[in-house]
Amino acid sequence: MDIVINFSKSAFKHDVTEADIRLAFDNNLYDERLDESDGLEDIEAKYLLIGFDSNANLIEVIYNVIDEDVIKVFHAMKCTNNHLMLIQDRR
Question: Does the model's pTM come out above 0.85?
Fold first, then answer.
């Protein structure tokens, strides 16, 4: 079953489109729970995804897991240097 992606208005604050966010989920290089959310219930925990948009630029997406089939994206923007280091460390 496909995951349903819901979006907060804040997800589009940095002019990343819904299509680009969906593409990043389909073409991600990194998708992990953020360390700062340890100890929180899953619905409160934050997850960071780094993936490609339609122009092959890396974007970062932060989301919550609502249940096993639904996530809620509340942040998306051009990938920052701090987060780029996460994928470089994996090489």
Answer: yes
